[in-house]
Amino acid sequence: MRGPMILGIILVILGVPLALSKVRPNSIYGFRVQKTLADPAVWYKVNAFLGKGVVICGIAMIVLSLTAPMLTRLLDMTAGNYGLAVILSPLAIVIALTWNYMSRLTR
């Protein structure tokens, strides 16, 4: 389960600057949608929220990848299916929560 662990580490590294509001509005890195790119105040708030979620997601991936052999035996799942769930579920949740936060912020 090295893949999810490596991805978790990358997410933590990418999420910290966002969480600390160190990333200026740009077209490459961050939650780049019309509402965030149109207003720097919204950009920083939404991307700080996203960054915290990405860091938590990355840490969760690291922890879960370390327990993968134990959990796959316990749940009788294949390592490949477990790895896919570890990667996609937390990211989908973080993106959905960030979208919801941005929508509430820009009403």
Pick out its properties:
107 residues, 80% helix, elongated
Structural account:
The chain has one domain. 80% of the residues lie in helices and 0% in strands. The chain has 4 helices and no strands. The chain has helices spanning 2-19, 34-38, 40-75, 79-105. The longest helix is centred in the middle third of the chain and has 36 residues, at 40-75.
What's a concise summary of this model?
The chain is mostly helical. It is about 80% helix and about 0% strand.
- The number of E-state strands comes to 0
Overall form: elongated
Count of domain modules = 1
Strand residue content: under 5%
What's the total helix number?
4
The biggest sheet, with number of strands, parallel, antiparallel or mixed sense and barrel status, is: none
Mean pLDDT: 86
Report low-confidence residues grouped into runs of 5 or more: none
User: What structural class is derived from the secondary structure elements?
Assistant: mainly alpha
Helix content: over 70%
- Measured between the Cα atoms of the first and last residue, the distance is 42 Å
Quaternary state, please?
Answer: single chain
**SSE ordering:** HHHH
Which value, in Å, is the CA radius of gyration?
16 Å
